[in-house]
Structures are given as structure tokens and as C-alpha cells.
Amino acid sequence: MADGFHKPTKFPSRVFEAFHGGDDPATLSRVAHETANALLSRVRENPDPAVVERLVAYTDEHGIDAVAELWAQASARSLPGALWRLYLLRLLIRQDPTGTAFLFQRGTELAVGVDPVVAGAPTPTGPEEVVALADDILHGIFAGDFGIALDRAAAFCRIMAGGATSIADDSEATEPERSSELTTRALRFSELGQELGACARLWRSYSLD
pTM of the prediction? Predict the structure, then answer.
């Protein structure tokens, strides 16, 4: 973990669009698993509200690089990999709540399944609501049902993917560059949703390590 304090690191959207999950389980480190398991076990055994609040807001003070240093290289279907993706998702939402709310609202309008209900966002979902949703999901990781929190995050990502795809289609003729960017973003959200959904299933089978 990074020593000391520093300003939170900005995480540009283009970095997210280039982000791929950990494809190679061989790159997992023992430190990533030990820290993830120790942190989660300790906090969930005694979910002190003040401690949970500090953990939810950890990257606001320390930056995303502090979390990435520990968990970003872990397998997508592992406990450290899930925690990294949840912190990454929260950061992306907080850096652009207006754009996120726009994509999410469009995705909600197009969704045909239960994802909007599972995600648990109020309707309509504005910037303040989408930021609160991100914090609420992370609270659930440390002080609620871990599997439900992962399911909510996965549903959120699927809705975002649908919204980004729809707006990309609308922009294709007039703004091809934006359309291409949104299509890539939709793919990343779709992948993220699949990974988090898999982590939820592994958690329920006591196999998420």
C-alpha cells in the first residue's frame, strides 16, 4: 500500500476504455489475496460505521493508485479483483456523475429485465442519485450482503452498457468519434458486469478467494 498521503489520482475515461480485466490467473499475487481477505474479514466481523465510511471513501483521499497497487493485477474472478473493480466503478461514477447519470437513465429506459430493480437506483436517476448509488453499493460490500452488492454493481454495469450502446447508435452518423468511444465504453461496461456477476456467483458458492 502506498505510504503517506497524496492527492487522489485522476482516472481519465480513455484509461477505462482501454482497461481489460485480469486475464491471466498466474499474475495473481499472494499479497493481493491476503490483503483483500484480511480487510474484508476484519471489517465484516465488526462493521463499525466510521470504519466502513472511511473505506468507502478511501480513494477520495489516497487515490485509485493505492488500491490498484494491491489489487488491479488480480484475476477478474477473485476477491481482490472484485474489490478493485468496485472501487474503479465508484471512481468513474464520481468523476463524471452527469455523464454517468445520462447513460444510466438511457439504459434504464431500454432495459427489459430486472436490472434497474437489482441496481436499486431511484427513478429518475440524476447525478446526485448515481453518486449515492455507488457509495451504497460499496457500503454493502463491507456491511451488508456481499453477494447482493456484487449483483447490484453488475446490474449497474449492464444498464450502463445498454445506455452507451444506444447513444453510440444515435451519434454514429453525426459524431462518429464519439460513437466509437461510446461503443468501446459499452464493451468495457459489459465485460465489467460479467466479471462482477461471476464474482457474485462464486461468493455464494464459497469459492471467491
Answer: 0.84
